[in-house]
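$ run holo --ligand "magnesium ion" --emit tokens
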Amino acid sequence: MEQNLKEFTIPKGYPFEGKSLDILISEKEIKDRIAELAVDISERFKTEKPIFIGVLNGSFLFYADLLRELSIDFEVDFLKIDSYGSATKSTGTVRLLKDISANITGRHVVIIEDIIDTGLSIQFLKQRMENAGPASVTFVTLLFKPDVAKLNFPIDYIGFNIPNRFVVGYGLDYDQKLRGLKNILAFREGDV
Ligand code: IMP
Ligand code: MG
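-- output --
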């Protein structure tokens, strides 16, 4: 995936206009991988009615694109957490900014994340969900940084493993910016 990365120049009118980033994962690759994940997840839950919990903000595009590809019925809910103190570094503590509203006791819960970096957020979410006594908790993430993440449990569905670089686009932000770009883009060394 790292070989011969194509370049993307941030268009006029956007923050960082004119800056070049590497296209780590293209729009087409995202779409194709989501189709594969949707088949696997639909198969896994074909006899259940899972509740998909989107982790705001970063997962909103992935969440919508994945769920519309499923061939099963489901319920939706959302929560919002924050672990990034500065624009690109985890603070080491996770804060719950918005909680789910559904009662998940006895339910099959599927957590949808945009990216697992240190693993702190997903660890926090696992603990929080399990405290409510669900029938099962399944973890789905679009992106995973295997060289950084420290986890003592497996992630059930991973879209892409990526190198330890800061990425934006397709819902992911730099300081709340650039979420609308369609590819997954990596800033170059020293740029952020
Ligand atoms: P963790 O708790 O360190 O695993 O970080 C998880 C959260 O940090 C993600 O849900 C993102 O919101 C944010 N994050 C981590 N890495 C990146 C990145 O490369 N770009 C944008 N956001 C990131
Ligand atoms: Mg996030």
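-- notes --
The beta strands are 6-9, 20-25, 51-56, 75-84, 90-98, 108-116, 136-144, 157-161, 167-168, 184-186.
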